[in-house]
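User: What would this chain look like folded?
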Amino acid sequence: MNYVKWFCLLGLIFSLTPAWANDAGDLLFSGDHPRRARVELLYENLERRIDITSENPDLRRKFDADVFALRFQSAVTPTARLDFDIGAMSAGGGNHRLMGGVGLRFLAFEEGAWRGGTFAQVRYAEKLRDRIDLREAENQDARFDLVEGDAGFLISYRFPVAGQFHITPYAGPVASVLRLSGRTGEGDTRERFRARQDQILGAVAGIGFQFADATGLRIEFRYFDELSVSAAAALTF
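Assistant: Here's the prediction, encoded as structure tokens.
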């Protein structure tokens, strides 16, 4: 399969669907691509309802941010992997800031074409900037750091199609915690800003299109307080 065609298809996916994160990922490990490294190119549009806890009482608003990242997959064992995310995040159309993350995945069981596995991951971005409507001040400039942590359990089924091409749907429950911390306003009018996610528990469902040596494409749906989509392209070398 031509890599250029993959990225063209990925670009089409991005242009047609809204996305949000944090991307749960697939259940592929080093045993599926021995002696080869694997990396995923991710795009996400984080879109969630948040409760601004620095307001009294709490104020509910919508938060969105774009994420471009590379996920490097490092083998711990043939059935466990450590992921490192490095990329850029921008909130509310502002400038992109450096973002980093780390995740751990384990294969819990494998029975024929079925697989089950657990995952946990966290990421951090600092000095994000957005415009937020507060109770007594609209369109306030906000600067803050972001911490997001996810954990969940996934089950997948691998359908052989032709040769080394497989289609692998996956799904499972997920818990996601989001924290924003910083300041709003300018100069002497600066005020503390704190916010957290509206809903912790949700569900994830995705489908992977896998080619030789675990290369492929993925589309993932997540539901918390809204339904959204994320996408990724994987390469091995």
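Confidence is low (pLDDT under 50) at residues 1-21. If you want, I can go into more detail on any region.
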